[in-house]
Amino acid sequence: MKDLNDNLDEFEQGPIRPPNEAFSLLVRVTRNCPWNRCTFCPVYKGAKFSLRAVADVKTDITAMAHLAKRIAPLMGPEGEVTKPLMQLLRDEARNEAVQVVRFLAAGGETAFLQDANSLIMPVTELVEVLTHLRKTLPAIRRVTTYARAHTVTKRSLAELTQIRMAGLDRIHIGLESGANEVLTLVEKGATAERHIAAGQAAKEAGLELSEYVMPGLGGRTLSEQHATETARVLRTIDPHFIRLRTLAIAQGSPLAGQRDRGDFEPLDDVEVVRELRTMVAGFTGMTSAVTSDHALNLLEEIEGQLPEDLPKMVAALDRFLDLEPHDQDLFIVGRRFGLLRRLGDLDDPAAHQRAEIALAQFQQRMPGPVASVIREAMARLV
Ligand code: SF4
To answer: For the chain, does the N or the C end have fewer beta carbons within 10 angstroms?
Structure first.
């Protein structure tokens, strides 16, 4: 067990958080993933899951609050990193301190509980951690975490409500797909019906619900089912948030093995957009906010509030699909190399020209169909 007096500022952090929690305080309540079988996910492979002792997590929270107290007076009035703060970061040379700076710079109002499935903690322990977090850092306004659908359905409505009342506001569930064939293929460990039950239970308990969806996960064979069934499941749940994160096959992941054996045929960038066109058109009668805030997504225009922004999202997908093949390649390369952000940037002559040069260089170095070659290159970055 940790002793707070040994080192007042040391605490543990896990490897990942959702993109929109980049400025949140990261509180590690468990280590790694208790499921760890999803074939597309490299994050915790080879690492053993464990619960952390509640006393240790509470000591971590106290240490974070202490570090935040040391850092806050060293920050500039707009949250800037000042020289004394740079010195402190250099002296401490720790990523955790940097995360506390980011948290404070963003107002110090959000926290994220790591790692992959915090709801697996015994309810009394999770409640104790949340209570301590809220008491120690009272300025925090929003606490979120990842949770597996399977685990959510193992908690009663009373338990989920108790967790929410102790201070958890939102859960992020990796739906990935609403098609059972896809969920089985990638060993997600939850059926579409389980996802629906979990989503509905979380909402009934008053939790905000964010569902992650992975375009491309069905490959060529299951693309149609992936699109239509995912839309059906999302329509049934109507979560508060839908977050898109396009598949990139990580080196060494089990899915890379499936692909190498010929058991999984990945979509190229154009096919992913075609799949998304089918999926997003099915987001009818819903009130979710859709976000496309992951770097792996091609079109960040696929975002907005349903139902009013649905026509805008479909129009953006159609605009890309209606481009000539050369212009599709141009946008793909321009976007992936950071020269273009949105489809409308193609109308800017200077940006267009820069993308043309990048496309020519890309094709010289990496011959083959741009839409698929570039996805293979991106996978190396995952
Ligand atoms: S449940 Fe989440 S963290 Fe665990 S293996 Fe699947 S995708 Fe990865």
So the answer is: N
Hey, is 6 helix, strand or coil?
Answer: coil
| pLDDT, average across residues 275-285 | 98
pTM, two decimals, is 0.92
Query: Does ligand 1 lie within 6 Å of residue 174's CB atom?
Result: yes
| DSSP helix/strand/coil, 111 | strand
The closest alpha carbon to 26, from 120, 140, 121, belongs to 140
* Count of CB atoms situated within 10 Å of the CB of 327: 17
Token representation of residue 127: 């409640």
* In the chain, where the domains are located: 1-147, 171-322, 323-382
- Report the DSSP pairing between strands 50-51 and 30-31: antiparallel
The answer to which of 51-60, 231-240, 245-254, 281-290 has the lowest mean pLDDT is 245-254
Whether ligand 1 lies within 6 angstroms of the CB of 186 is answered as: no
Hey, is 146 helix, strand or coil? strand
The residue to mutate among 30, 41, 152, having the most atoms of ligand 1 within 8 angstroms of its beta carbon, is: 41
Taking the CA of residue 146 as reference, the ligand 1 atom at the shortest distance is 2
Residue nearest to atom 4 of ligand 1 (CA): 36
Cα pseudo-dihedral 103, 57, 189, 263, rounded to 10 = 60
* Interatomic CA distance for residues 296 and 340, integer angstroms: 14
Q: What is the mean pLDDT of residues 102-117?
A: 94
The residues facing 210 across adjacent strands are: 172, 241
Atom in ligand 1 nearest the alpha carbon of residue 115: 3
Is the domain spanning 171-322 CATH 3.30.750.200? The answer is yes
What is the C-alpha radius of gyration for the chain, rounded to an integer number of angstroms?
22
3-class state of residue 274 by DSSP? helix
| CA gap 331, 323 in Å, rounded | 9
**Does the beta carbon of 35 lie inside 6 Å of ligand 1?**
yes
